[in-house]
Amino acid sequence: MGILTLPSRFERRSLIRLAYSMQRIHEAHVDIRFVLCNIKKDEERTMVSLEMMQYDDMIILNCTESMNFGKTYTYFSSLPKLFHGENKYDYVMKSDDDTYFRFDNLIESLKDKPRYDMYYGAGLVFEGKDFPKFMLGMGYLLSWDLVEWIAESDIPRSKLVGPEDLLTGMWLNMGNKARNRYNMIPAMYDYQGPGFHDFIPETIAVHQLKETTRWLTTLKYFNIKDKGLN
User: Fold this and answer.
1) For 176-222, where are the E strands, in sequence order?
2) Helix or strand run (H / E) with residue 10
3) Which end of the chain has the lower number of beta carbons within 10 A, N or C?
């Protein structure tokens, strides 16, 4: 899982590390990486350097720090080289730092899914419920072969500017790829409000956690449910 974030968001990364450390992942191996582009400010470079000394969970890419100017493409296309010679992953996910995933539910939902030509996420219903044209940027998953295709094909390289989630779907559509598509709405959804009735036990991901208070409300709900606390 690559979480696309900004160098300045040190506190957000710390919160996400804490949030995911409380989950016990079963039946799968999940690696989480924070994905940054070139760091220009000295103070941010210092902070990120300190993080890298403490944690082995950051990828810094040679790209422009903007979601709609090729960062997602650089992330996907860099992975085959970054992990060359290692055991290949089954899937690669792109996520944002305002999305919280429930890994046990995510893993359970993948058990019966193919590991080839697969595109998984939250697709807009009016864009095709069963075969969405694209998956929303809150977090979507590609099988490893599609990541290799993105790295090799001229199609993605020719279209780098625009909404990153829409572009990913466009690349796959133009290449006649991702014939296996899975729309996980309503288990992946936007944060609705502070009331516990706005969450569901089957949740795979909650999006739009823009403020720390939203993260804490979400974590309070799921940790209370998981641990059986009052």
Assistant:
1) 180-183, 188-190, 205-207
2) helix 10-21
3) C
CATH class of 2-227: alpha beta
Render pLDDT for 140-168 as a digit per residue (tens, 0 to 9): 999 999 999 999 999 999 998 899 999 99
Q: How many CB atoms lie within 10 A of CB 21?
A: 8
Closest CA to 16 of 51, 45, 64, 47: 51
Domain ranges of the chain: 2-227
What lies within 8 Å, CB to CB, of 163 at 6+ separation is: 68, 137
146 CB burial (10 A radius; 0-12, 13-18, 19+): buried
pTM of the model: 0.92
Contact 74, 63 (CB under 8 A): yes
In angstroms, what CA-CA distances link 215 with 26, 32, 113, 186, 193?
23, 18, 29, 19, 11
